[in-house]
Design goal:
Strand content: 5-15%
Number of helices: 14
Organism: Achromobacter veterisilvae
Mean pLDDT: 83
Distance between the termini: 25 Å
Structural class: alpha/beta
Protein name: Sigma-54 dependent transcriptional regulator
CATH class of the largest domain: Alpha Beta
Largest sheet: 5 strands, parallel
InterPro entries: AAA+_ATPase, AAA_lid_NorR, Homeodomain-like_sf, HTH_Fis, P-loop_NTPase, Sigma_54_int, Sigma_54_int_dom_ATP-bd_1, Sigma_54_int_dom_ATP-bd_2
Order of helices and strands: HEHEHHEHEEEHHEHEHHEHEEHHH
CATH architecture of the largest domain: 3-Layer(aba) Sandwich
Keywords: ATP-binding, DNA-binding, Nucleotide-binding, Transcription, Transcription regulation
Pfam families: AAA_lid_14 (PF25601), HTH_8 (PF02954), Sigma54_activat (PF00158)
Oligomer: single chain
Strand order of the largest sheet: 2-3-6-1-7
Low-confidence stretches: 247-254, 309-315
Length: 315
């Protein structure tokens, strides 16, 4: 994570990050959705002694409750229906490196018990196996929820939290980072120009709009807006392009969406899902409940949208 030239709060986070990287203790990163918690986790890994080993990211909200044990710890052939071969789990994939638990407050409570035991003993077994395997991983976890509130709500076991919360880090939202939106917007555009051999620029009034907007979706919203505006602009990214990039095709006004006749169903669904998520300030569980889908389904759709955005930006 390059904090050079950014706001004082990010300079402070950069210093904390370097201290965390020098240790090998568990790190708990808290921040709103879209603030870049995984970027911070990867930066810690890449500047630590484990940098040459794997970094494995696990979205705890997307793990199937019935298969959580097998996904984390692996399984032996025949240990359950569908286990046609021995399979490694996330702990084995991350051996020697870093295991990043994103949205850790969404981990099923019974799974937290098993996970805590592994953290305390340093060993685990595959499902259906008897061999003890060593868990040589550093755990970094993240959540967009206040962990103490999650304990009070019964989402997170207190003993599990105490084991994870050795080094706490908070990633501030973009609205608390004065001047960073413009710096980051230029960085995103510079990257797109470099990757695509272009020289597109920001129109002055678009820079003013970026500076004035509070970016409730944080860095993720800003990055996606710049990427989509880049695709739509011929030479200069202007405010009308920004409005389209932020989803004018399905613009949200006072809790409702307006779609033009003829919009493809897939695009309308995407805009509806993203608008609902933004409406709930990035709370994926609440957005899933509003949409009437499972949390795992929502994560799958957001992952797909993220891949589509990346592919389009690199086209």
């Amino acid at each position: 994570m390059d904090a050079a030239g950014l706001s004082p709060v990010m300079q402070k986070l950069g210093a904390q990050l370097r201290l965390a990287a020098a240790a090998d203790a568990s790190v708990f990163i808290v921040g709103e959705s879209g603030t870049g918690k995984e970027i911070v986790a990867r930066a810690i890994h890449e500047t630590s002694d484990r940098r040459d080993q794997p970094f494995v990211a696990v979205n705890c909200g997307a793990i199937s409750g019935t298969l959580a044990h097998a996904e984390l710890f692996g399984h032996e052939k025949g240990s359950f229906t569908g286990a046609v071969a021995q399979n490694a789990g996330y702990f084995e994939y991350a051996s020697g490196g870093t295991l990043f638990l994103d949205e850790v407050t969404e981990m099923p409570p019974d799974m937290q018990v098993h996970f805590l035991r592994v953290l305390e003993t340093g060993t685990y077994q595959r499902v259906g196996g008897s061999d003890l395997l060593r868990a040589n991983v550093r755990v970094i976890c993240a959540s967009n929820r206040d962990p103490s509130v999650s304990v009070a709500d019964g989402r997170l076991r207190q003993d599990f939290l105490h084991r994870l919360l050795v080094i706490p880090l908070r990633v501030p939202p973009l609205r608390e980072r004065e001047g960073d939106a413009l710096i980051l917007a230029h960085r995103f555009l510079d990257t797109l120009n470099r990757e695509n051999g272009t020289r597109k620029t920001f129109a002055p009034r678009m820079l003013e709009a970026i500076a004035l907007h509070d970016w409730p979706g944080n860095v993720r919203e800003l990055r996606n807006a710049v990427q989509r505006a880049y695709i739509l602009a011929d030479a200069a990214l202007d405010t009308d392009v920004l409005a389209r990039a932020r989803g004018q095709e399905g613009e949200m006004r006072e809790g409702s969406l307006n779609f033009p006749v003829g919009m493809p169903l897939g695009r309308a669904q995407r805009e509806f899902i993203l608008a609902t998520l933004a409406h709930h300030a990035g709370d994926k569980r609440l957005a899933a409940e509003t949409l009437g889908v499972s949390l795992k389904t929502l994560y799958n759709r957001l992952d797909a949208y993220g891949r589509e955005t990346s592919d389009a930006a690199g086209a």
